[in-house]
């Protein structure tokens, strides 16, 4: 059975493409009517306004960046000056930190010098009384600056406050401070100098006055 063809050679039952061909993009643009003079001027005005706004924002940003840069430069200069002032203050504190204490100690030195100058002209008891007054003045001066002395005599040996120079046979309880070579001192409750002491040890056949190892040994009965 033979097939029948239409005029273009396609079978009679073949589907036909009924959609019209789409025009090309160039053709579509060519079909748009040209802009009028008013429309061109309006578009030019819009673009000019957009450009001006963009330039204005750029100028504002540049000004803000300039201000920020200058502010950072000022902060850096101020910080550098602060470091220099702090270093100068630390240096002055190291050099002149004891100036106030020195001024308070000068009268003590003056009174001590007067006492020595007139020691031969006065009775020994008067000289002793004068030296005691100078000592009291010195203690009061140190106390005003937070310096206080403490005595270890008769107290149990405390390695945090005392320095044992030697051990000595004594009837006192072992580990008791029986002699004080020099007083201890604190500055605002901080230990400045431990008290140099002699510590009691039980009587035995050993020689008295045995030094403690290292000058800071614990009592003889410590284990």
Written overview of the protein:
There is one protein chain. With 223 residues, this protein is an alpha+beta fold. It is 48% helix and 16% strand. It has a 4-stranded mixed β-sheet, with no helix packed on it. It has a 3-stranded antiparallel β-sheet with strand order 1-4-5. A hairpin with a 2-residue loop joins strand 4 and strand 5.
Pick out its properties.
three-stranded antiparallel β-sheet, alpha+beta, disordered C terminus, 4 helices, 223 residues
What's the structural blueprint in terms of helices and strands?
Blueprint: H1 25-31, H2 37-96, H3 99-117, H4 124-144, E1 147-150, E2 162-169, E3 177-182, E4 184-187, E5 190-193, E6 195-201, E7 210-211
Parallel strand pairs: 2-6
Antiparallel strand pairs: 1-4, 2-7, 3-6, 4-5
- Calculate the terminal CA-CA distance, rounded to whole Å: 130 Å
Helix content: 40-55%
Number of helices: 4
Number of strands: 7
Rounded average pLDDT = 81
**Could you state the order of secondary-structure elements as H and E?**
HHHHEEEEEEE
Strand content: 15-25%
User: Residue ranges: pLDDT <50 for 5 or more in a row?
Assistant: 1-5, 207-217, 219-223
Q: How does the helix and strand content classify structurally?
A: alpha+beta
The biggest sheet, with number of strands, parallel, antiparallel or mixed sense and barrel status, is: 4 strands, mixed
Strand order of the largest sheet: 3-6-2-7
Rounded to an integer in angstroms, the radius of gyration calculated over CA atoms is: 52 Å
Q: What is the overall shape?
A: elongated
Oligomeric form: single chain
């Amino acid at each position: 059975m033979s097939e029948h063809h239409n005029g273009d050679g396609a079978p009679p039952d073949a589907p036909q493409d009924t959609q019209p061909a789409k025009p090309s993009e160039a053709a579509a643009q060519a079909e748009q009517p040209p802009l009028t003079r008013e429309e061109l001027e309006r578009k030019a005005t819009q673009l000019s306004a957009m450009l001006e706004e963009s330039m204005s924002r750029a100028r504002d940003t540049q000004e803000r960046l300039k201000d920020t840069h200058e502010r950072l430069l000022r902060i850096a200069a101020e910080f550098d000056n602060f470091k220099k002032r702090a270093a100068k203050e630390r240096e002055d504190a190291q050099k002149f930190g004891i100036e106030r204490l020195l001024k308070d100690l000068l009268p003590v030195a003056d009174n001590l010098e007067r006492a020595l100058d007139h020691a031969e002209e006065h009775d020994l008891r008067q000289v002793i009384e004068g030296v005691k007054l100078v000592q009291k003045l010195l203690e009061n001066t140190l106390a005003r600056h937070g310096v206080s002395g403490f005595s270890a005599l008769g107290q149990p040996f405390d390695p945090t406050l005392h320095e044992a120079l030697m051990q000595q046979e004594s009837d006192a309880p072992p580990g008791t401070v029986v002699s004080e070579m020099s007083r201890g001192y604190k500055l605002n409750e901080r230990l400045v100098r431990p008290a140099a002491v002699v510590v009691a040890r039980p009587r035995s056949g050993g020689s008295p006055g045995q030094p403690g190892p290292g000058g800071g040994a614990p009592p003889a009965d410590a284990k």
